[in-house]
Amino acid sequence: KRLAIFASGSGSNAEKIAEHFANHSEIEVSLILSNNPQAGVIARARRLHIPVILFDRKTFYETDKVVKILQNEHIDLVVLAGFMMLIPEAMVHTFPNKIVNIHPALLPKYGGKGMYGHFVHEAVVAAQESESGISIHYVNERYDEGDIIFQATCPVTPTDTPEDVAAKVQVLEHKYYPEVVEKILITL
Ligand code: GRF
């Protein structure tokens, strides 16, 4: 089975997933794609010897080049890991229930356009939530609204800062995303 990972930022989740499958006989991370030439994920991909494809907004939304690459590479599952762009409808329809995303909060709360990274954890702290966590979900054409596949929680204490929450959530991301992706791939 062949995975493509989309990332716009640091790529720590992409790296954890790639490391998880590094010695797997049946599953490989075949491609890492990004819209951000400065993304930290590019250096991580180089170290992991995974090919990187960069594209810009115009290519992603006005051509089918990215979808064509995924098809030519026989990608079985598309994994979004800190990818900051909405997935074009054509891509959602080309890969039905084959695009998954991780959101650093307990959807349906704290999701949607603009709710990413620090903003999510600030909102959780501001709301004085007693817990936060991760949501792994199928991707459709609206931000963070696809069917939820898996959630895990972590406690939030009254003294926690958004950075404290981000750190606890990231532990969950790195622990669960690789194994949830593996479970999805086995069903494909
Ligand atoms: C994570 O918080 C993830 O939940 C969100 O974007 C961040 C990606 O972090 N989708 P990284 O680039 O994988 O380190």
Give the topology, please.
Layout: E1 2-6, H1 12-20, E2 28-34, H2 40-47, E3 52-54, H3 57-62, H4 65-72, E4 77-80, H5 89-94, E5 99-103, H6 118-126, E6 131-138, E7 148-155, H7 162-187
The structure holds 5-O-phosphono-beta-D-ribofuranosylamine.
Describe what you observe in this structure.
The chain is α/β, with parallel strands linked by helices and 188 residues long. It is 38% helix and 21% strand. The protein has a seven-stranded mixed sheet with strand order 3-2-1-4-5-6-7, covered by helices on one side. Strand 4 (77-80), helix 5 (89-94) and strand 5 form a beta-alpha-beta unit. Helix 1 runs parallel beside helix 7 and helix 6 (118-126) packs across helix 7. The longest helix has 26 residues, at 162-187. The radius of gyration is 16 Å and the shape is globular. It starts with a strand and ends with a helix. The mean pLDDT is 97. The structure holds 5-O-phosphono-beta-D-ribofuranosylamine (GRF). Residues 7, 9-14, 81-82, 102-104, 173 line the site of 5-O-phosphono-beta-D-ribofuranosylamine. 5-O-phosphono-beta-D-ribofuranosylamine is lined by residues 7, 9-14, 81-82, 102-104, 173. Keywords: Purine biosynthesis, Transferase. Catalyzes the transfer of a formyl group from 10-formyltetrahydrofolate to 5-phospho-ribosyl-glycinamide (GAR), producing 5-phospho-ribosyl-N-formylglycinamide (FGAR) and tetrahydrofolate. The active site is at 103 (proton donor).
